[in-house]
Queue: 2 jobs
Job 1
Amino acid sequence: MTSHNRCATTLSALDSLKRQCDLSAGTELQIHLVDAGSTDGTPEAVRRHHPDVALMSVGDDVFWGHGMRIASRNSRGADRPPFTHQLWLNDDVVLDDDALAHLLTVGHQEPGAVVVGAVHDGERTTYSGRRGPGLDLVEPTGRPEPCDTYNGNVVLIPSAVRARVGDVDKRFPHGMGDYDHGFRVRKAGIPAVVAPRHIGRCRRNPPLTGSREPGIGPREALRRLASTRELPPRAWWRYCLRHTGYRAPVLMMSPYVKTLVRAGVGR
């Protein structure tokens, strides 16, 4: 897990982990959280309410992808017992009480597969696996559904898969790292499936923020789009080269051109 200035949200996610039930006898959960320079008291609150969480504080220049690599590295320390699975969990997800048991059950039914947990906001699916040319959300159907890649909100990864594919690529400091990981999993011949039902709640990120904020103008919109939080050009170009084939040059330019047009028209 990673966190940054979302104290109440992070605590809710940790609380939901502690409520997990119906786990097989002997199941042990070790939580590794990397906090990226929070100034709202997140580290202190985590230590106070969840003293068993392995918490590392780093600078606020560490974004999701880098933080998840650090958390994974910490979980594999020499003083740590070997694990059977890693669970990626965003700090804005509140898991159902039996979510982990459900994911592990699906993992036993689909040996060696990465299992993705779909989450919702009370009305619709917000994050899940992704499938098809448009990377559409995969809806839970009551049975494991194959996917091409996945959002990194809730992902259960067998230890053998982590050892073979690795963590989020260091070339993706924030966004795209989860999609890239999913595509690398599939290219390695490893199945990825969405669990049969939703396993928790998570709101979608607000739509009109960042480069999409109304009235900010083309230059500011492009600056925000090219920032680490959205689509930094070097990382985006590498993603396009890896996963979009001959369409890479067109897809590389498309979001920047669309952002300039949208911001210009908006003014």
Note: The longest helix spans residues 248-266.
Job 2
Amino acid sequence: MFLSELKQEEKTAFLELASLIAKIDHKQTIYEDSILNKYKKEMEIDHYKIQGLEMEDILKVFKSERSKNIVLAEILTLIFSDGVFHESERESLQLIKKHFGFKPSEFSSYKDWIDKIRELSSHEEYQTIG
């Protein structure tokens, strides 16, 4: 939603992070593939090739609070896209939250927001199908 606001270096870092998170449970789903492609289009970096950077190096790129908020919201969307919250995803989220300096209450409100967006999305898809 807000990925286009990121600086160019942040866009590629975000795509690296999203790719890493999508594969963290060793099962990249079609839902995750779809979201990764959506991210590329939104950021206008369709032809970017994943370099395989380390998470610590990726997270250092995001400096502003706004960028960190955008990253967390979009990563949560990706993580919950397949409806399963794996232990490896939880650990990755803990690392991101710690690195970005988020409080647990902030994370909870983000998760609630993502759940509401997913619910609206599912309802909208149902309406167009039915």
Note: DSSP finds six helices and no strands in the chain.
